[in-house]
Amino acid sequence: MYASGSESLIKQAREIQQEELRSFYSKICKLLQPQGREGGDTLDCLQRLRLIVSAHKYGRTLPVDLLKRLQDLLCCPSSPEQLQVLSSSILRESIAVCEDRLALRDHQDGRTVSYVAVVILAQAACKSELTGLCHHLLKSLECWQPDVQVSRHVLPILSRVIACSPHSLSEDHVNLVSRKLVDWLRYASVQQGIAASSGGFFTGPRTRQPVPVTEVDGTVVGDFFTVLCVGQGFTEDQWMNMYAFSMIRKWLLTYDIEETSSGDTDDKSEVDGSVMSMVSATSSSSRMLPPKERLREKAFEYCQRLIEQSDRKAAKKVDSDLQKACLVEAVTVMDIICKEDASFVYRAFPCIKALYGRISGDLAFSRTLLPIAQFYLNHSETAAVDSEGVFRQLLFSFPADLFNESMLAFEFTQFCRANMAVLRERVTLYRQSFPNLLKFLAWNSPALVSEYVELLPSLLAPETAIELLHSLLDLPCLAAALDIQLRAAFYPSSDRALWDQGGRTTSSLEAFRQPYYRGMFLYILRLEAGTGDTIDRLSMLHEVLADMVESPRVVRCAQTVPVLLHVFFHAAVQFADRKLINQLVLVLLERSGLLLSVKNYKMEVQRVFSFHLLLLCKLQPSLIMDLSRELLDFTGATTNIYHKEELYTHMVWAIGEYLRVGHDSHCTVEHITTFFETLEAVLFEITQVRQSASPPLYSPRLITVLMTTLAKLASRSQDLIPRVSLFLSKMRSFTHSGPVAACFGEEDSEEILTRAQELMNLLKLPNVAQFVLAPSAQGSSPRWHRDSNTSLPLSMQVLSGLLQKQTNFLPG
Amino acid sequence: MVKCFLIHTLCSVSTLSPGETRILYSRVFGPEDLQSAAPDGELHMEERHLLQKEKLALIARQVQSACSLWREALGRPPSEVTLGGESVALQEAETGVLRLPAGEPYLEECFVLWLGVHSLGFTMVCEPHENLLLAEGTLRSLAGHCLETLRLLGPGSEVLLKSDRIEAMLHHLLPHGQLLFLNHRFTQCLGKELAACIGK
């Protein structure tokens, strides 16, 4: 537990005075004299020094003599390990500016090499600073003997070096390491090593009969040594076997890739090509292979053996966990090898298929199924193997049964991300399964939202776009339903009393069990697209789920929906045709009010809808005519103003902007008049002023947008101009009435009046009004700004000049 | 390979603003984002040092917020520690994983694996192409070792003063950031070596 004591300790370490620090440094220097370093005081002081150099984000520079002493301590093989640990970590954390950098010497023992390497790696600023280290490592690898103690860490250090600078190794170096890896992986001893004995009085060094290592279930091994073999102790080459397998994936990924493009390997594959290696590529024949290919072969055999060994029942939990991790690694390494050399595919599949058959039924192995699925995805076509079963399980059973396994959810989405294009193209189930895939998101929403932002476009298809949109909007319902599903499984229905005590939460849980609501829950929790449709009963589901709307999981889930909606619309318009766009707009209108009432959810969704409504109208202005009946219904209902003002305002603006012959040749005066009359009635209704009336529940912007739209429509059907002018002239009495003035305030009222006046003035010159209120579609094109004779600013200037004159002529 | 290992707070610390965390221990394995040419001098070293620390702080903050969101979703109140309950605490620990997109803050995409034990977070940043199942097991065992040898759930400050124990532990169980496939016997052998090193 973090205590205030620790906080004050950090403060002290940070604020230590220069004077005090100097004397502390010199004290440590004295303690680190070559003789008598090992005192308890030394340990204590070094621990404090470690805290002082690491307490602040700004590094400390140590004095040169202290650095020297620390380096000596680090490099001296006779120093106790604990002091080496401290000195390497102090040197690592401080800003060391020393003339002679640490150098590795041949005679140094393995332990010291590893601690020195820590400092060299930490302070390297460029790749060239690693060459010395690299050469030392390769040299010690070259002269490695089972009985000569070199650093066991030589492979971990090497893989760290190649991680930051893969080109430090020449082709010869790579071959050398490959040969060594083969030796350790495939030919490590199968006898037990001497256990690091406790050195008791009676256990003298006596020659014992060699004891073979065992499998994890205790049987004696019948084949070569792997990390799944146990013994009392391990020999050096068995240790190297473990380190070698731990780095093999990285090694193959780094050095097994480039080579295949060169010409001569093609020739070789002719010789020992698919037929040969399918029949027999035994270890005797593989002796002839060049080191890299030999390593491939041996690594492959190692993985096959691991897969076999994972079938054994481990006596310890540590080992059964290791078996799963080994399966993941083995299948991945086989996948890497098969990618490089397709002839391995035929040898790998029987093994992979058998493994899949063995573990597919066991959910405990779910995470090991992901690399298997990857293998099928990469190679099933080459080997003409049917992969549908694998993907069916992956896409249907995983999200449905294991949505609450956060690690699996993460790995699953990474799998989809990495293979988006292939899944979309080759696995037909992928896009169908989106209702199921969204379960991971609904349950783990904040953690996975950025992954789904990337995935969503790949799930989108013209046939399922509408359903996907509904599913996104229902995402909070899905989160709630999953929560209920889990709880329902947790409290069996026989224990009614138990879950009844939950108070508020019971009703949705109860509903989940009732046959009447069953269909709705099944719909929300469905696995596949295109099955069932209960949109008409959605509001009932929302009522049932009312007790879940404050659940943190549902709230967080609802917060992610607007982001995904943006992604959805941006992706959908890429391929949407006229029909689909019309459908999308209908869904916007329909669903804008039909949402789970999570805090702020409706408002946020309507904001996204409004934004995309305008984009859709701009993309396809004729939708106003296509959907005229629905739009009239929507804009004619004043309740929409009170519940969805944002969307309503945008809709009205779009009607004013796009309802004209220029955009749709079917647009007639009758259409314009119908829309005009509907909107006129709405404006009349909401601006009706009664003294008793409550203050308006909408913004002044709505009034100005409605007025402008009416003026626009009137300019296109000039019979309507007197009507709108009359209406506009009445706005003064509206804004001056008691409740309105109190609600809108001086400035807003002024805005409304100014706009009304401007529109009235414009409409006095119908031809000009038509030009200003409905600029042609080319209005936004750059030509207007370039061509000085037709530029919009110029036209506007002329017009405003004219209008000014007109108003001057008018009385008062 | 593992890029770094951190122990940091998940609770609010009185001297820090709410979103901040205190990093109690950090270990970065090896150089990151190396350049091919030698940069100049001392100033650069200081900058690199500062940059590295800021990256760690960024990761710790992200883990803190991920963990608090996770706990919020579970609807579980932060429970009190019972003394000697390290193994229980570890079993009940929340665990999760995050993706750090390329450039935020490392050049290549990375994965952050975290384990929240009460008010302490154990965090490991892994390179892509890493065996997450193995990494998760390793993180759990490292956290277990730390809790036990440093009595992290107690009121003391050993994590700050005895950091060499964590250092030695990482050196043996996660050498230079290499995740190891250790069966129970390998683990026992390494445990003995480790005990000999830290003088227990």
Structural features, described:
The complex is a heterodimer of chains A (about 800) and B (about 200). Chain A has about 800 residues and is mostly helical. Chain A has 44 helices and two strands. In chain A, strands 1-2 form a two-stranded antiparallel ribbon. Chain A is elongated and about 110 Å long. Chain B has about 200 residues and is an alpha+beta fold. Chain B has one domain (about 1-200): Beta-Lactamase, CATH 3.30.450. Chain B has six helices and five strands. In chain B, a hairpin with a 2-residue loop joins strand 4 (about 110-115) and strand 5. Chain B is globular. The model of chain B has no long low-confidence stretch (mean pLDDT about 85). The chains are: A mainly alpha (about 800), B alpha+beta (about 200). Chains A and B meet through helix 1, helix 3, helix 5, helix 6 and helix 8 of A and strand 2, helix 1, strand 3, helix 3 and helix 4 of B.
